[in-house]
Amino acid sequence: MGPVDNRGKHNNHSKLSDTVFESVRDHINSIPRTESHYLRANTTREFIDGSLTIAELHRDYKLIQEAAGKEFANYVTYYRIFNNDFNLGLFNPRKDQCHECEGYKNSTDKGPLKDKYNKHLEEKSLSRLELKHDIEQCKSNGSNNIVAIFDLQAVLPCPIGQSSAFFYKSKLNCYNFTVSNINDDTTVCFFWHEGLGKRGANEIGTCVYKFLEELSSKQPNKDIIFYSDNCCGQQKNKFVFIMYYFAVNTLPIKSITHKFLIRGHT
To answer: Is the dihedral of CA 239, 243, 249, 255 positive or negative?
Structure first.
Protein backbone atom coordinates (compact mmCIF):
# COMPACT_ATOMS: atom_id res chain seq x y z
CA MET A 1 0.00 0.00 0.00
CA GLY A 2 1.49 3.31 -1.07
CA PRO A 3 1.75 6.53 0.92
CA VAL A 4 -1.44 8.55 1.50
CA ASP A 5 -1.70 11.77 -0.51
CA ASN A 6 -2.41 14.53 2.00
CA ARG A 7 -2.01 17.46 -0.37
CA GLY A 8 -4.64 20.11 0.27
CA LYS A 9 -5.86 18.38 3.41
CA HIS A 10 -4.79 21.06 5.84
CA ASN A 11 -6.66 23.85 7.58
CA ASN A 12 -4.54 26.76 6.36
CA HIS A 13 -6.54 27.53 3.20
CA SER A 14 -6.92 31.21 2.45
CA LYS A 15 -10.64 32.02 2.24
CA LEU A 16 -12.32 35.19 1.10
CA SER A 17 -15.12 36.58 3.19
CA ASP A 18 -18.69 36.72 1.97
CA THR A 19 -18.35 40.50 1.88
CA VAL A 20 -15.69 40.26 -0.84
CA PHE A 21 -17.81 37.92 -2.94
CA GLU A 22 -20.74 40.28 -2.53
CA SER A 23 -18.60 43.24 -3.61
CA VAL A 24 -17.82 41.45 -6.88
CA ARG A 25 -21.50 40.74 -7.52
CA ASP A 26 -22.42 44.34 -6.69
CA HIS A 27 -19.85 45.63 -9.17
CA ILE A 28 -21.05 43.31 -11.94
CA ASN A 29 -24.66 44.28 -11.23
CA SER A 30 -23.70 47.95 -11.57
CA ILE A 31 -22.80 47.42 -15.25
CA PRO A 32 -25.69 48.56 -17.50
CA ARG A 33 -27.11 45.92 -19.81
CA THR A 34 -27.36 46.61 -23.51
CA GLU A 35 -29.50 45.07 -26.26
CA SER A 36 -28.18 43.14 -29.22
CA HIS A 37 -29.43 44.12 -32.67
CA TYR A 38 -31.86 41.23 -33.11
CA LEU A 39 -34.82 40.30 -30.94
CA ARG A 40 -33.98 37.58 -28.44
CA ALA A 41 -37.40 36.39 -27.29
CA ASN A 42 -36.22 32.81 -26.70
CA THR A 43 -33.32 33.46 -24.32
CA THR A 44 -32.78 34.96 -20.87
CA ARG A 45 -29.18 35.88 -21.63
CA GLU A 46 -28.26 39.53 -21.02
CA PHE A 47 -25.55 41.55 -22.72
CA ILE A 48 -23.14 44.26 -21.66
CA ASP A 49 -21.15 46.64 -23.80
CA GLY A 50 -18.10 44.76 -25.12
CA SER A 51 -15.85 47.82 -25.20
CA LEU A 52 -14.25 46.59 -21.95
CA THR A 53 -12.88 43.10 -21.29
CA ILE A 54 -13.39 41.15 -18.06
CA ALA A 55 -9.81 41.97 -17.12
CA GLU A 56 -10.53 45.69 -17.49
CA LEU A 57 -13.72 45.32 -15.47
CA HIS A 58 -11.71 43.64 -12.70
CA ARG A 59 -9.18 46.48 -12.82
CA ASP A 60 -11.95 49.05 -12.30
CA TYR A 61 -13.41 46.94 -9.48
CA LYS A 62 -10.01 46.71 -7.80
CA LEU A 63 -9.51 50.49 -7.98
CA ILE A 64 -12.93 51.09 -6.40
CA GLN A 65 -12.19 48.70 -3.54
CA GLU A 66 -8.72 50.12 -2.95
CA ALA A 67 -10.06 53.68 -2.91
CA ALA A 68 -12.56 52.65 -0.23
CA GLY A 69 -9.85 50.80 1.76
CA LYS A 70 -11.67 47.49 1.33
CA GLU A 71 -10.48 43.98 0.52
CA PHE A 72 -10.89 42.89 -3.11
CA ALA A 73 -11.01 39.60 -5.00
CA ASN A 74 -8.31 38.62 -7.47
CA TYR A 75 -8.92 38.31 -11.20
CA VAL A 76 -9.51 34.54 -11.13
CA THR A 77 -12.28 34.91 -8.54
CA TYR A 78 -13.84 37.84 -10.40
CA TYR A 79 -13.74 35.89 -13.67
CA ARG A 80 -15.30 32.80 -12.05
CA ILE A 81 -18.17 34.79 -10.52
CA PHE A 82 -18.77 36.66 -13.79
CA ASN A 83 -19.13 33.42 -15.75
CA ASN A 84 -20.77 31.15 -13.17
CA ASP A 85 -23.13 33.45 -11.25
CA PHE A 86 -24.32 35.60 -14.18
CA ASN A 87 -25.80 34.82 -17.58
CA LEU A 88 -23.94 37.63 -19.33
CA GLY A 89 -22.33 38.05 -22.72
CA LEU A 90 -20.06 40.76 -24.10
CA PHE A 91 -21.79 42.47 -27.01
CA ASN A 92 -19.69 43.97 -29.80
CA PRO A 93 -21.61 45.40 -32.77
CA ARG A 94 -20.20 43.86 -35.92
CA LYS A 95 -21.21 42.96 -39.42
CA ASP A 96 -23.52 39.97 -39.46
CA GLN A 97 -21.92 36.76 -40.69
CA CYS A 98 -23.77 34.23 -42.80
CA HIS A 99 -24.27 30.98 -40.86
CA GLU A 100 -24.31 28.90 -44.05
CA CYS A 101 -21.07 30.37 -45.38
CA GLU A 102 -19.28 30.32 -42.03
CA GLY A 103 -20.39 26.74 -41.36
CA TYR A 104 -19.12 25.55 -44.73
CA LYS A 105 -15.85 27.48 -44.41
CA ASN A 106 -15.09 26.00 -40.98
CA SER A 107 -16.22 22.45 -41.78
CA THR A 108 -13.53 19.77 -41.91
CA ASP A 109 -15.64 17.59 -44.19
CA LYS A 110 -17.14 19.84 -46.87
CA GLY A 111 -18.42 17.01 -49.06
CA PRO A 112 -21.88 16.52 -47.52
CA LEU A 113 -22.39 20.29 -47.32
CA LYS A 114 -21.27 21.18 -50.83
CA ASP A 115 -24.62 20.87 -52.62
CA LYS A 116 -26.46 22.87 -49.97
CA TYR A 117 -23.72 25.52 -49.98
CA ASN A 118 -23.75 25.84 -53.77
CA LYS A 119 -27.54 26.23 -53.73
CA HIS A 120 -27.17 28.92 -51.06
CA LEU A 121 -24.69 30.84 -53.22
CA GLU A 122 -27.00 30.51 -56.22
CA GLU A 123 -29.94 31.91 -54.23
CA LYS A 124 -27.75 34.77 -53.02
CA SER A 125 -26.79 35.65 -56.59
CA LEU A 126 -30.38 35.37 -57.84
CA SER A 127 -31.69 37.64 -55.08
CA ARG A 128 -29.13 40.30 -55.93
CA LEU A 129 -29.94 40.01 -59.62
CA GLU A 130 -33.63 40.42 -58.75
CA LEU A 131 -32.86 43.57 -56.77
CA LYS A 132 -30.68 44.95 -59.56
CA HIS A 133 -33.39 44.23 -62.14
CA ASP A 134 -36.09 45.93 -60.05
CA ILE A 135 -33.92 49.01 -59.52
CA GLU A 136 -33.14 49.31 -63.23
CA GLN A 137 -36.78 48.79 -64.14
CA CYS A 138 -38.15 51.35 -61.66
CA LYS A 139 -35.83 54.03 -63.03
CA SER A 140 -36.76 53.40 -66.65
CA ASN A 141 -39.10 55.76 -68.48
CA GLY A 142 -42.77 54.96 -68.07
CA SER A 143 -42.31 52.62 -65.12
CA ASN A 144 -45.05 52.55 -62.50
CA ASN A 145 -42.84 50.80 -59.93
CA ILE A 146 -41.26 52.28 -56.82
CA VAL A 147 -38.51 50.30 -55.08
CA ALA A 148 -37.86 50.96 -51.39
CA ILE A 149 -35.37 49.27 -49.08
CA PHE A 150 -35.74 49.41 -45.31
CA ASP A 151 -33.74 48.26 -42.30
CA LEU A 152 -33.42 48.88 -38.58
CA GLN A 153 -30.05 50.24 -37.50
CA ALA A 154 -28.18 48.55 -34.66
CA VAL A 155 -29.31 49.66 -31.20
CA LEU A 156 -27.88 53.06 -30.30
CA PRO A 157 -27.15 53.29 -26.53
CA CYS A 158 -27.01 56.81 -25.14
CA PRO A 159 -24.84 58.28 -23.68
CA ILE A 160 -21.72 56.82 -25.23
CA GLY A 161 -18.08 57.90 -25.08
CA GLN A 162 -14.49 56.72 -25.11
CA SER A 163 -13.95 57.20 -21.39
CA SER A 164 -14.56 54.16 -19.18
CA ALA A 165 -16.76 56.40 -17.02
CA PHE A 166 -19.45 56.16 -19.72
CA PHE A 167 -19.37 52.39 -19.44
CA TYR A 168 -21.07 52.38 -16.03
CA LYS A 169 -23.72 54.98 -16.87
CA SER A 170 -27.28 53.79 -17.36
CA LYS A 171 -28.06 53.71 -21.06
CA LEU A 172 -31.17 54.72 -22.95
CA ASN A 173 -31.55 52.45 -25.98
CA CYS A 174 -32.49 54.32 -29.15
CA TYR A 175 -33.72 52.93 -32.46
CA ASN A 176 -33.37 54.30 -35.99
CA PHE A 177 -35.48 52.76 -38.75
CA THR A 178 -34.63 53.91 -42.28
CA VAL A 179 -36.58 53.57 -45.53
CA SER A 180 -34.75 54.43 -48.75
CA ASN A 181 -36.71 55.33 -51.88
CA ILE A 182 -34.53 54.13 -54.75
CA ASN A 183 -36.45 56.06 -57.40
CA ASP A 184 -35.51 59.51 -56.12
CA ASP A 185 -32.56 58.51 -53.87
CA THR A 186 -34.16 59.83 -50.68
CA THR A 187 -34.18 58.26 -47.22
CA VAL A 188 -36.68 58.70 -44.40
CA CYS A 189 -35.59 58.04 -40.80
CA PHE A 190 -37.93 57.08 -37.97
CA PHE A 191 -36.20 57.58 -34.62
CA TRP A 192 -37.49 56.69 -31.14
CA HIS A 193 -36.21 55.47 -27.78
CA GLU A 194 -37.21 52.51 -25.62
CA GLY A 195 -39.45 54.71 -23.48
CA LEU A 196 -41.70 55.33 -26.49
CA GLY A 197 -41.81 51.86 -28.00
CA LYS A 198 -40.05 48.59 -28.67
CA ARG A 199 -38.70 47.33 -32.02
CA GLY A 200 -41.16 44.66 -33.03
CA ALA A 201 -43.79 44.22 -35.72
CA ASN A 202 -46.07 46.98 -34.38
CA GLU A 203 -43.35 49.62 -34.42
CA ILE A 204 -41.89 48.57 -37.78
CA GLY A 205 -45.34 48.25 -39.33
CA THR A 206 -46.28 51.74 -38.12
CA CYS A 207 -43.13 53.26 -39.63
CA VAL A 208 -43.69 51.55 -42.98
CA TYR A 209 -47.35 52.62 -43.02
CA LYS A 210 -46.35 56.24 -42.34
CA PHE A 211 -43.92 55.98 -45.26
CA LEU A 212 -46.69 54.58 -47.48
CA GLU A 213 -49.07 57.38 -46.47
CA GLU A 214 -46.56 60.07 -47.41
CA LEU A 215 -45.49 58.33 -50.61
CA SER A 216 -49.01 57.63 -51.89
CA SER A 217 -50.10 61.22 -51.27
CA LYS A 218 -47.32 62.48 -53.53
CA GLN A 219 -47.26 59.62 -56.07
CA PRO A 220 -50.64 57.85 -56.11
CA ASN A 221 -51.51 54.54 -57.79
CA LYS A 222 -47.98 53.14 -57.83
CA ASP A 223 -46.77 49.54 -57.61
CA ILE A 224 -44.48 49.49 -54.58
CA ILE A 225 -41.74 46.88 -54.11
CA PHE A 226 -40.10 46.57 -50.69
CA TYR A 227 -36.78 44.85 -49.96
CA SER A 228 -35.59 43.92 -46.46
CA ASP A 229 -33.85 41.22 -44.45
CA ASN A 230 -35.60 38.12 -43.07
CA CYS A 231 -36.17 39.20 -39.45
CA CYS A 232 -39.45 37.48 -38.51
CA GLY A 233 -40.02 39.48 -35.34
CA GLN A 234 -39.93 42.76 -37.23
CA GLN A 235 -41.17 42.44 -40.80
CA LYS A 236 -41.62 38.83 -41.95
CA ASN A 237 -44.87 38.25 -40.08
CA LYS A 238 -48.66 38.40 -40.39
CA PHE A 239 -48.95 41.80 -38.72
CA VAL A 240 -46.92 43.59 -41.38
CA PHE A 241 -48.68 41.69 -44.18
CA ILE A 242 -52.09 42.67 -42.78
CA MET A 243 -50.86 46.27 -42.68
CA TYR A 244 -49.99 45.98 -46.40
CA TYR A 245 -53.50 44.66 -47.11
CA PHE A 246 -55.01 47.56 -45.17
CA ALA A 247 -52.79 50.10 -46.97
CA VAL A 248 -53.73 48.83 -50.44
CA ASN A 249 -57.44 49.04 -49.55
CA THR A 250 -57.38 52.48 -47.91
CA LEU A 251 -54.58 54.39 -49.64
CA PRO A 252 -54.13 55.26 -53.34
CA ILE A 253 -51.69 52.37 -53.88
CA LYS A 254 -52.05 49.91 -56.75
CA SER A 255 -50.03 47.04 -55.24
CA ILE A 256 -47.37 46.19 -52.64
CA THR A 257 -44.76 43.46 -53.12
CA HIS A 258 -42.25 42.53 -50.42
CA LYS A 259 -39.10 40.63 -51.39
CA PHE A 260 -36.74 39.22 -48.77
CA LEU A 261 -33.02 39.00 -49.39
CA ILE A 262 -31.08 35.84 -48.49
CA ARG A 263 -30.17 35.64 -44.82
CA GLY A 264 -26.58 36.66 -44.14
CA HIS A 265 -26.28 38.56 -47.44
CA THR A 266 -28.60 41.53 -46.90
So the answer is: negative
Residue spans of the domains in the chain: they are 18-91, 127-260
How far is Cα 57 from Cα 80, in angstroms, rounded to an integer? Answer: 13
Fold for 127-260, please state it.
Answer: Nucleotidyltransferase; domain 5 (3.30.420)
Nearby residues of 52 by Cβ (< 8 Å), 6 or more positions away: 60, 164, 167
User: How confident is the model over 214-235, as pLDDT tens digits?
Assistant: 999 999 999 999 999 888 888 8
**Whole-structure pTM value:** 0.65
- Please give the C-alpha separations between residue 62 and each of 28, 29, 49, 76, in angstroms, as whole numbers: 12, 15, 19, 13
Pairing assessment for the beta strands 156-158 and 145-152 based on DSSP bridges: unpaired
**Burial (CB count <10 Å: 0-12, 13-18, 19+), residue 264:** middle
Helix (H, G, I), strand (E, B) or coil at 105: helix
